[in-house]
Design a protein that fits this description.
Blueprint (H helix, E strand, L loop, with lengths): L1 H31 L20 H35 L21 H9 L15 H7 L7 H29 L8 H43 L1
Length: 227
């Protein structure tokens, strides 16, 4: 357990360190490099300078950290899920992992990158808002998966799925009518944002609703036993 906490702290520390490096590189660029690669610029006329290296390297390191984080989380999720299924209990998860949901704010970088080089992929980072659901999943670590729990889990997953797909369906109807504000690129951005937020909402709601349903049943059992 202590090793897991140490490993989690190291991963979080690397993330904070990566962000600090980007902020430091941004300060350097604004102060000594005419704010290149910080403010929007025309990349069709871009010429590399040695002073651009701090900004380029730190941004690449941050992107590498995010990709590595997603990879390790998927790997750890698969491992713990198989172990939990064999023991018929929910997997052990630290509720503090819910803080990873703040990575969803990286999606706002899309407005910056779009102005710089028309890149829209950062908008997909809004998907990380779904990681807030790790908090509620962590609160239910090592819960025995009896018949009632499985029913609540299916009920929560179904409701979250319906809400998510409804949002995507409405977005298709609205955005599929034509260009948003007479711009096809704005339509693409809006669709990426809606789909990312819809998936994030499904991930979050499936855990939140399961937590609420399970605890409501426990309160009902306690009230009945008290009577």
């Amino acid at each position: 357990m202590k090793k897991k906490r140490t490993k989690t702290a190291r991963i979080a520390g690397l993330g904070v360190f990566s962000v600090l490096l980007v902020l430091l590189a941004s300060w350097y660029s604004v102060t000594y490099n005419e704010a290149r690669l910080v403010v929007p610029m025309d990349f069709t006329e871009y010429e590399f300078r040695i002073r651009d290296l701090p900004m380029i390297v730190t941004v690449l390191l941050l992107c590498f950290y995010v990709c590595a984080l997603v990879f390790f989380m998927i790997k750890a999720n698969s491992r713990t899920r198989h172990t939990a299924q064999a023991q018929q209990v929910t997997r052990t998860l630290n509720p503090k992992l819910g803080l990873l949901g703040f990575c969803g704010f990286l999606g706002f970088l899309g407005f910056w990158t779009y102005q710089m080089d028309k890149s829209v992929y950062p908008f997909a980072f809004f998907l990380f808002f779904g990681f807030f659901g790790f908090y509620y999943e962590g609160k239910m670590s090592n819960t025995y998966m009896d018949e009632r729990f499985l029913q609540n889990k299916n009920k929560a997953s179904l409701k979250a799925y319906k809400i998510s797909t409804s949002m995507i369906f409405i977005a298709l109807l609205v955005l599929g009518q034509g260009r948003l504000m007479s711009r096809a690129d704005y339509t693409l951005i809006a669709f990426i944002v809606v789909v990312s937020l819809s998936i994030a909402l499904e991930l979050f709601l499936s855990e939140y609703l399961l937590y609420r349903y399970d605890h409501d049943d426990l309160l009902d059992d306690l009230s009945e036993s008290g009577e």
